[in-house]
Amino acid sequence: MDNNKSASLKSTPPHDVVGEGIEENLLKPYDDENAELLNKTMLDSVEILKDHPVNKKRIAEGKYPANMIWLWGQGTKPNMVPFAEKYGLKGATITGVDLIKGIGSYLGLTNINVPGATGYFDTDYGQKANYAVDALNDHDLVFVHVEAPDEAGHAGDITEKIKAIESIDEKIIGKLLDELPKFDDYAISILPDHATPISVKTHTTEAIPYAMCSTKGVEDNVNQYNEFSAKMGSLGTIEGYKFMKSFLDI
Ligand SMILES: [Zn+2]
């Protein structure tokens, strides 16, 4: 198979087509020989996985079976400048999501594996915060990623979404704000990478609210973090790719 040609096929993120049929969302163009082979693999996987012992065990335990292979989000290795080279800082990532770990690896960040970090509603928020505080002893910057609010958005589950946001607020931000003052100088920022509104169950592209707090930073009148109050902030709207420099400069 030609990997570069496969990278150019049109694939569909499953969370963009919740409730839609499988056939119309397979890899396109359908008549491409690589797409044909990969689509056959995906469709054959349904039969192979149906009676797989691992799935029988999962069903018996009341868990969802892995009922299909779904290929999407393919690409070729990006050419990224290592974080340390670009910003002169040693960084780490904490996440339950392989995609983010992969970006961390490209950037030369330390991927810190946290027991109980699942990339889902049931993630261990407290442990992520504990490991982040520990990591700050030998890293300049720690990126803590939580997937749960996004997953709750995709699921259209308002209760889980509120719970996830409250847990981040209390168990991660709260813990970090308690612990960070032991460092002489520190800065912290909170932001999502995009919205996933319950109303549409997928990602949207409006500007996201971000907050920054630093021992060297200036105060403004905003004292809440949400979409509405962030608009009143003194930091203004910036392009995503300028965020890190802006954060390191405050
Ligand atoms: Zn998402």
Q: Based on CA inertia axes, which overall geometry fits?
A: globular
Bound molecules: zinc ion
Mean pLDDT: 94
Number of helices: 10
CATH topology value of the largest domain: Alkaline Phosphatase, subunit A
Radius of gyration: 21 Å
The total tally of domains equals 2
Which strand order do you get reading across the main beta sheet? 2-1-3
What pattern of helices and strands is seen along the backbone? Answer: HHHHEHEHEHHEEHH
* Amino- and carboxy-terminal Cα gap: 49 Å
Strand content: 5-15%
CATH architecture of the largest domain: 3-Layer(aba) Sandwich
Number of strands: 5
Major sheet characteristics: 3 strands, parallel
List keywords for this structure.
two-stranded antiparallel sheet, Alkaline Phosphatase, subunit A, 2 domains, 250 residues
Could you explain how this protein is built, in words?
This protein is mainly alpha-helical and 250 residues long. It folds into 2 domains: 3-60, no CATH class; 83-249, Alkaline Phosphatase, subunit A, CATH 3.40.720.10. 39% of the residues lie in helices and 7% in strands. The strands form 2 sheets. It has a 3-stranded parallel sheet, with helices on both faces. The chain has a two-stranded antiparallel ribbon with strand order 4-5. Strand 1 (91-94), helix 5 (98-107) and strand 2 form a beta-alpha-beta unit. The longest helix is centred in the C-terminal third of the chain and has 22 residues, at 158-179. The mean pLDDT is 94. Bound molecules: zinc ion.
